[in-house]
């Protein structure tokens, strides 16, 4: 579900760099949800999911494509000032696309319960128990000032799990070096229509739809 984009091949030397690079760039697209908008009810309403996916995530995708196109044009012109000026837009919208593409797969109408196997073993090793991990991730997520994310990530260097918060749409891996396993979106658009300003109730409810199979798959891939 991760939407990635890149330059297809290399810029042809016999073409204008602006035309060849921009024309060959694959655009990001909004990923489909692996379930219906109402599938996570009553924990997350269909209205929230539809707005969150079709409006908010779609906006990040669209704005990322625009920013990347402008950045390629700036590269072709050698306009370093414009390249620097575009960095915040690339980080914000690129992070929004990455974070949400992970988030949708982290959730499932068949979610909840507890993880199994090596993921559960790692959680117990690094946090003492599954409940302690939940408490810490919930506290970090609820405690985000303003908008942001709470994350369970994997540190490849230490081989251990970590819990951190990232502000705004800062991507976990690009900001901390941790591989994202489970993210909790605590921007108000993720919960306000249903939970108003009571973020703790939303975070408590989201455990009922966490897709631990997806988290475990990410954990196994991160260890390789």
TrEMBL record:
Q: Name one Pfam family in it.
A: Sod_Fe_N
Q: Which domain of life is it from?
A: Eukaryota
The keyword Manganese belongs to this UniProt entry's keyword annotation: yes
Might you report a single GO cellular component term?
Answer: mitochondrial matrix
- What cofactors are annotated for this protein? Mn(2+)
Enumerate the GO terms in the molecular function aspect: manganese ion binding; superoxide dismutase activity
Q: Which residues form the Manganese/iron superoxide dismutase N-terminal domain?
A: 27-108
Q: Which family does it belong to?
A: Belongs to the iron/manganese superoxide dismutase family.
Q: What is this protein called?
A: Superoxide dismutase
In its UniProt entry, the species of origin is given as Acipenser oxyrinchus oxyrinchus
């Amino acid at each position: 579900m991760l939407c990635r984009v890149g330059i297809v091949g290399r810029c042809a030397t016999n073409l204008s760099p602006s035309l060849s690079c921009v024309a060959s760039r694959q655009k990001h697209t909004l990923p489909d949800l692996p379930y219906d908008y109402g599938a996570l009810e009553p924990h997350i309403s269909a209205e929230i999911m539809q707005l969150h996916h079709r409006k908010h995530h779609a906006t990040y995708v669209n704005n990322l494509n625009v920013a990347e196109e402008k950045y390629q044009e700036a590269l072709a012109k050698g306009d370093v000032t414009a390249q620097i000026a575009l960095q915040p837009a690339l980080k914000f919208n690129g992070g929004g696309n990455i974070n949400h593409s992970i988030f949708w797969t982290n959730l499932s109408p068949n979610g909840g319960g507890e993880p199994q196997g090596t993921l559960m073993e790692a959680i117990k090793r690094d946090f003492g128990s599954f409940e302690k991990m939940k408490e810490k991730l919930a506290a970090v997520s609820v405690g985000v000032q303003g908008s942001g994310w709470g994350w369970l990530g994997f540190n490849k260097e230490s081989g251990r799990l970590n819990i951190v918060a990232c502000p705004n749409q800062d991507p976990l891996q690009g900001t901390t070096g941790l591989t994202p396993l489970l993210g909790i979106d605590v921007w108000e658009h993720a919960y306000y229509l249903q939970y108003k300003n009571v973020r703790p109730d939303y975070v408590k409810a989201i455990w009922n739809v966490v897709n631990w199979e997806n988290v475990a798959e990410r954990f196994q891939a991160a260890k390789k």
